[in-house]
Amino acid sequence: MHSENSEFISDTNETRDKAQSGAADTVAYSLPVQPTHEYRATEEDLFYFRKWFNDYVATFASEDTLIQINIDLKRDHTLRVCRASQEIGHDLNLSQNDLRLAEIAALFHDIGRFEQFSRHRTFSDKRSFNHAAFGVGVLLKDNVLSRLGIYEQELIIKCISNHNKLILPDENDESVCLHSRLLRDADKLDIWWVVTDYYSQRATGNINPGLELDQPDTPGISPAVFESIMNGETVLFANLKNLNDFKLLQVGWVFDVNFAPTLRRLKERGYLDIIRSYLPASDEVEELFVCVNNYIEQRVNTA
Fold first, then answer.
1. What class is the 7-189 domain?
2. Within 203-282, where are the H helices?
């Protein structure tokens, strides 16, 4: 499945529309052969990485209100993605080692966002840089992951590099596949929380341009967006014409969810119903949500 995951909300939209084709937007890694006795991540490792993350984020403290709001937004998002990775991982009965690796990947998946917004005042990869590739560069430059085994370092790097790609690349390593999919699901699950919380605030006049990517608040929905969702496909950012289309792009992420427990949590938390409440009451919107809800029910009930 394709993913236009609006990570605040553009990497998974604008950068993916380019299919990650530019040299500056791609990072290629080759995992070493997995050792027989792999390194086991420890609680001490997690403590170290959490402290490094907090110290790094603190360097972006700003007196500029817009910058500070969005630095805080991204920090809080990251911590919730860490929790979501653990929730979904427990549902999947992952080992303690895999749960710790999942948390490390989640903790660093958006490390490039802080420099991005601080420097460019946008979360648009198209208007700045590929935040995933930049974040990988930060981790490598500072040798942040060096306390892990070589294989585990490369696994984390690959997961971060993959998290904002339109299509997950073919991968023979089962652990990389698992952790890449888990990170993408945890990321989406929290972005749904972020956007639904934002739409409720927006209704009271609290507007954050960083979460709208300059989409005009005009009536209706675009035919291409309608067609994509009815065909069970994610929506391309290039097809968006207004804020309603943008909201439907977020609805269409369901078609890129990897694990049934993620969809189950999405359903229980009612995120799509909240998005729907901020869309026009029309036959088209009704038809779209019947399609999406049927898909969710089928995935959850056959898991």
1. mainly alpha
2. 223-230, 243-251, 260-269, 271-277
